[in-house]
Amino acid sequence: MSTESTAAPGKLDAAVLKIAGVVVLGAIMSILDVTVVSVALPTFQTEFGASYAEVAWTMTGYTLALATVIPLTGWAADRFGTKRLYMAAILLFTIGSALCATADGIGQLIAYRVLQGLGGGMLMPLGMTIMTRAAGPERIGRLMAVLGIPMLLGPIGGPILGGWLIDAASWHWIFLINLPIGVIALVYAQFALPRDNPSPSESFDFLGMLMLSPGLALFLYGVSSLPETGTVSATKVWLPALAGALLVVGFVLYSFKPRHPLLDLRLLTNRNLSVAAITLAVFTIAFMGAGLLFPSYFLQIRGETTLAAGLLMAPQGIGAMITMPIAGTLADRVPVGRTVPFAMLLMAAGFFGFTQVSTDTSYWLLGGSLFVMGLGMGGTMMPLMTSALKTLTSHEVARGSTLLNILQQVAGSIGSALMSVILTSRLNGSPDIPGAGVTEAQLAIAAKQDPSVTQQLPVEPSVLDRGLSFAADAFGTTFWVAFGLVVITLIPAYFLPRRKQSSPLQEGEPQAAPVMLH
Q1: Helix, strand, or coil here: 274?
Q2: What pLDDT is stored for residue 7 in this prediction?
């Protein structure tokens, strides 16, 4: 059965909302998976007898797979159609999840996580493309607000869900839970997504793929190795990062020559897209980098359980859930240059609260800071994506969403590495405990999580108190850097459009095929 969208301009009809439901399911699987697995790293160490550096590759391998496959998504969406490719991505992610649950060694788990990442890497850019085409230019903001829901719930629900599944069942269930969601998403997609209308005429940019995909993977490998080594001079860091950067630069220089490049950088000549992309990149470095440290503060400095740390993060999601629907509606009516800077100021105010952390900072203050930060976040990320995509033509949407997703992935990895290195260097700057091979801060954190370590290495209580205070100051210093980056984000945000944007689709270009259910 076919039904065309009959909703009034700006409103989301039932057919469009059904399509949004498919995309949200895929996004939930992808985003929740990252946060759930991050909670399970200590469990993997115990189960597989591996070091933290080894189990961290269950995260890094997934990220590298994402970076490898995302550049191919724009071309593949045009060539094979978004529906077929989206369903293939869900299937690949689900199969990877099932295999992860069967792993009996850390090497197998890392390999299966790479397979899972190949599917997961396509879900977000394809989802954004599907929703943008379905909504049309006048409703992108509202639909992006719907897509933002899993982005908000992932960092909150992931630690809570992961901690509960590991405690109540076993680590296998953090992967097995994706199976029923994947099956439902596949069936749902078959009936809800519009019929494909692929454009097979474009040639595949094979040379571009040989430069961009390995380049991104090598660069992110080097950056991801930075927290482990603690220095950019380590061969494991600078060599792959440099090689990857050279390949990416080579791709940038080459990409303007072919008619259909793997990643269409010509889109950056669109001023609205380029300004929104720069703002989004700086914002992502600050938010994604510091976002991983919020639960770490609760776990390491305050000695909370994983479940409690997840619950303490809830105010951030509540704040974002309040402003995101409002921001989505405003993005369709009011230029983002008039709203995003105010949201950035809220983000900065929330971050400032965490620059003051100590060993006994009031949870009311921290919860309030997270809530204010969430209010700002809800008014920032999706409006920026809306601003970037709504001035693109129907054909350019797949390429534009791919470009934004690559940018976010690289910026998030840089932010995580930057904040981790700053925090680690500050912790290592604490006074050493003679003959113990650890600093006072490191021992205090270990004792906070497992008091029995003081039986193996007896020290005066004053030493632990001093070390914990030093560790709290290290977190505060790191949050100062994140605060500074959020403030810097106000500079590109100032150049966001302050007049209503006109879409090529509104100026006469034929829109994508009408929304159909069959």
Answers
A1: helix
A2: 44
